[in-house]
Amino acid sequence: MLMLGAQILLGFQLQAPFQDAFSDLSVFEKWIEAIVLCIMVLIIALLITPSARHRIVERGEATQRFIAFVTRISFLTLAPFSLALGLDLSIAIGRALGWLIGGVAGAFSGAVALGLWYGPTLISDNYRDTRMATSNEKTPTAARSTTS
């Protein structure tokens, strides 16, 4: 889900300079859009990392170490994701309602995203999915994808 959302937002960021209203943005706003584009590229790079690690390091096995790695990467990408979301919303709302309201709305939306994404994990002392298997058995060949 994170990768799908990041791809959609990256597509919006890449399309922004080709929109008619982009020329109406101030230099500061264009710089913010460029920064958000860089953040989205970073997010995509972070989200691609687990698939490469799965093939190269883990040799296609779903080990506990790999599952922990995917969890850490997913957790790590949420902070820049909320920053990019807040910056984009501040520009959009600022254009319509004024820069003060846009800045407050962007900061609020970024904070709400952070709270909703990180809050449940930080509140829970023993966050762990007990439904996940904890054995170190090899993944059967039939269960692994043979295509890359």
Ordered list of secondary-structure elements with their pairings:
Blueprint: H1 2-15, H2 27-56, H3 64-97, H4 99-123
What does this molecule look like?
- The chain has helices at residues 2-15, 27-56, 64-97, 99-123.
- It has 148 residues and is mainly α.
- Helix 2 runs antiparallel to helix 3.
- The chain is elongated, with a radius of gyration of 19 Å.
- The mean pLDDT is 82.
Helix percent reads 55-70%
Secondary-structure element order, N to C? HHHH
Instruction: Please tell me how large the radius of gyration is.
Output: 19 Å
Instruction: Catalogue the unreliable spans.
Output: none
**Using DSSP, what is the number of strands?**
0
Report the sheet with the most strands, covering strand number, pairing sense and barrel closure.
none
Average predicted confidence as pLDDT:
82
What are the main properties of this structure?
148 residues; mainly alpha; 4 helices; 70% helix
Brief overview, please?
Helix content is 70%, strand content 0%.
